[in-house]
Specification:
By secondary structure, the chain is an alpha/beta fold. It contains 6 helices and 7 strands.
Amino acid sequence: MRLLLVSSSGGHLAQLMCLRPWWEKHDRHWVTFDTEDAVAKLDGEDVTWAHHPTTRNARNLLRNTIQARGVLARTDPHVIVSTGAALAVPYFWLRSRRRSVTVYLEVYDRIETRTLTARLCRPTTDLFLVQWQEQQHLYRSSVVLGGLW
């Protein structure tokens, strides 16, 4: 199975790293930001460095959307997994052309309100995971995965 793991660096990437026992068994490609922590964590991995900042930055959204088209065509993933943030949006919305399955894992620290990225990705998400039962009321038909740390 070919995976595409997409996330911002920092805590979002740390959450995906917690899934190592699962993703290390598969062919994979990463998309994140070229930051010191991401470079260290993904040493030896196949990575595309995305454009940041992404928060309310239309220019980088466009650049990342163009980049997403190329990455999706080149990697042809079976599954796209993301913990957010905004970097995930173009990958989830463009995935229909590739017929990839999308899995979104909501971050552990948003229990009372939905994140903007989750709201934007939710319409194109095949499996929506949360880490706390308290998050389920925010996202109908979500599945509780449990906390990752």
